[in-house]
């Protein structure tokens, strides 16, 4: 093959713009330009997943398989990914627990239940409606069939011994044998029962943050810089922002795990904060069983029955309560933290990515519990449906360590920030 022909082929395969396109994808997905030429071993674990996602998108495959692609992405990166996937001409199979993401990108939903796969047209909301309507149709058909069965059984009972009606009774009996009720099995998916209460009610303020700055030892960079805000009792505040801007750092400062470099955090006298960390592995370092671990968080009036009931509501029952906490999955550890907060009854919940590792049913149950929670909620989340359903105020952390404090719902925040939407 001549050099000119090779050059044509190289151009057809996108060789001339490959480097620029790779850099654009990496930047759009949140990988700093300084890392583009660095080896993968120097990339943080959370960012490695982004690089792998960028690699899959760069190759422009005919079939794209994405397993939880929104994990480790911030809200703005998820919006960017939605735009890329909606413009991309390929068959895609996506596994995700991000309801809004599924609504934005999916044309069909495959529901796996009892080892059976059933495909519904439309997005996630369409699937939920269609599956409900399908179940209602089966229930209505079964009710009608059951009514017919009762009528036929009554006729056979009354006239089977009547010579003049014997032929009709036989005909009804044959018809009765042909009627089959369609089995309606309850879904194999289960919703945990989650409810948070507070021991003491706060009436005005919960906590004040005054000129808070924080930098990690050995660093010259302020993760948080002169951050100030007040949290009023009963507020539900979502903390959002790009990955790495300090959302977890702020949460850890609030609950006292990290000491501010400057400024102060002042909790009101009766505040009793409860905390759910993004990574809860350290909470399960001791080799104890589930029952023993949960028993550590009981109040004076709580007995073993309360502990067992709490575990049961969180879908831990029978011999499961005897297994070691060290073998729990990420989602199971998260449910155990929910149980801890249910038993300790704090009047302020500080939750860092509380939907991580959770299935749809658990996320929905958690959202319902937090909607009903009478206390104050401060939470970090990249799940836009979750934020949209809960937040009454948005605090966005910026790359320079400052914040934007927006009073209103997430939808109102998006309307006020078109580029963020």
What would your notes on this structure say?
The protein is an alpha/beta fold and 421 residues long. It folds into 3 domains: 3-96, 3-Layer(aba) Sandwich (Rossmann fold); 97-188; 205-416, Rossmann fold, CATH 3.40.50.300. It has 14 helices and 13 strands. The protein has helices at 3-12, 18-28, 45-58, 75-87, 99-105, 124-159, 166-178, 247-254, 290-295, 304-313, 330-344, 360-372, 384-390, 410-416; strands spanning 63-67, 91-95, 108-113, 116-121, 205-214, 224-232, 236-240, 262-267, 273-276, 348-352, 376-380, 393-397, 403-407. The strands form 4 sheets. Strands 9-10-11-7-12-13 form a 6-stranded mixed sheet, with helices on both faces. The longest helix is centred in the middle third of the chain and has 36 residues, at 124-159. The model has no long low-confidence stretch (mean pLDDT 88).
């Amino acid at each position: 093959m001549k050099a000119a022909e090779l050059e044509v082929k190289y151009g057809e395969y996108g060789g001339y713009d490959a480097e620029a396109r790779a850099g654009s994808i990496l930047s759009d997905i949140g990988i700093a330009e300084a890392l583009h030429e660095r080896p993968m071993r120097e990339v943080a674990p959370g960012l490695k997943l982004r690089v792998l996602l960028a690699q899959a998108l760069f190759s422009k495959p005919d079939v794209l398989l994405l397993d939880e692609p929104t994990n480790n992405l911030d809200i703005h990166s998820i919006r960017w990914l939605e735009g890329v996937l909606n413009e991309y001409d390929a068959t895609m199979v996506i596994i995700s627990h991000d309801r809004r993401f599924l609504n934005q990108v999916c044309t069909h939903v495959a529901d796996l239940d009892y080892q059976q796969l059933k495909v519904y047209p439309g997005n996630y909301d369409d699937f939920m409606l269609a599956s409900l309507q399908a179940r209602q149709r089966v229930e209505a058909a079964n009710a009608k069939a059951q009514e017919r069965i009762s009528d036929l059984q009554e006729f056979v009972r009354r006239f089977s011994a009547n010579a003049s009606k014997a032929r009709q009774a036989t005909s009804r009996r044959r018809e009765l044998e042909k009627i089959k009720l369609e089995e309606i099995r309850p879904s194999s998916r289960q919703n945990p029962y989650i409810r948070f209460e507070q021991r003491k009610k706060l009436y005005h303020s919960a906590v004040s943050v005054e000129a808070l700055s924080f930098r990690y030892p050995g660093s010259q960079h302020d993760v948080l810089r002169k951050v100030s805000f007040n949290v009023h009792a009963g507020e539900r505040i979502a903390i959002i922002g790009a990955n790495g801007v300090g959302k977890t750092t702020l949460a850890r400062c609030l609950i006292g795990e990290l000491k501010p470099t400057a400024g102060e955090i002042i909790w009101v006298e009766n505040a009793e904060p409860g905390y759910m960390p993004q990574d809860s592995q350290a909470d399960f370092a001791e080799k104890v069983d589930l029952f023993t671990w949960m028993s550590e968080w009981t109040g004076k009036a709580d007995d073993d029955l309360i502990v067992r009931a709490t575990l049961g509501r969180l879908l831990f029952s029978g011999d499961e309560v005897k297994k070691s906490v060290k073998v729990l999955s990420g989602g199971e550890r998260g449910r155990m933290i929910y149980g801890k907060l249910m038993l300790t009854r704090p009047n302020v919940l500080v939750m860092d990515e509380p939907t991580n590792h959770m299935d749809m049913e658990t996320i929905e149950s958690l959202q319902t519990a937090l909607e009903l929670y009478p206390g104050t909620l401060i939470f970090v989340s990249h799940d836009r449906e979750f934020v949209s359903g809960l937040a009454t105020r948005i605090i966005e952390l910026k790359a320079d360590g400052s914040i934007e404090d927006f009073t209103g719902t997430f939808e109102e925040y998006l309307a006020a920030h078109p580029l963020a939407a």
